[in-house]
Amino acid sequence: MAQENVRSMVQLKEKRRAILVTFTGFVLLLAGVALVPASATTGILYGYLLGAVAVALHLLTLRFLQRYESKKFTEGYYLSILIRFLLVLSLFTLILLFGKIDQLYFTLSFIISYLFHSVIDFILIHKIFAKDTYQNQ
To answer: Which residues contact residue 40 at a Cβ distance below 8 angstroms, ignoring those fewer than 6 apart?
Structure first.
């Protein structure tokens, strides 16, 4: 019982840290937007948000799949990668086709945002799995 409380406290601390880093990234993005032409601002914000949505879908998938054993987790995870990829690709294409935005700034913003959020995501996942492995030994 005590181990469960410690684990939930650690996970809460990690979530807070991830939210703080994401918020900091968003503040830095807003500061950077002030330095670019006004016509590029919408493209940058759309790109950032699309990158954040892609990583949020990944976190939701992990949250949903974490209760399954290893084989079923792996199967579901790989299927979710395909679904997330197609969903993000569809959104990316729709925004490029129908959005009246600067496509270069949008694309660069999306790539940078996706990498930024993915690194944070992988660090968080690694810490959780490392602590779980350490506690199970």
So the answer is: 102, 105
**What are phi and psi for residue 29, nearest 5 degrees?**
-60, -45
98: left (phi over 0), alpha (psi -120 to 50) or beta: alpha
Instruction: Report DSSP state, residue 101.
Output: S
With contact defined as beta carbons under 8 Å apart, do 114 and 54 qualify?
Answer: yes
- Assign 102 to helix, strand or coil: coil
**Residue 1, helix vs strand vs coil:** coil
Find the mean pLDDT for residues 12-25: 70
pTM: 0.63
pLDDT digit string, tens, across residues 83-117: 888 988 898 899 888 888 888 888 888 888 888 77
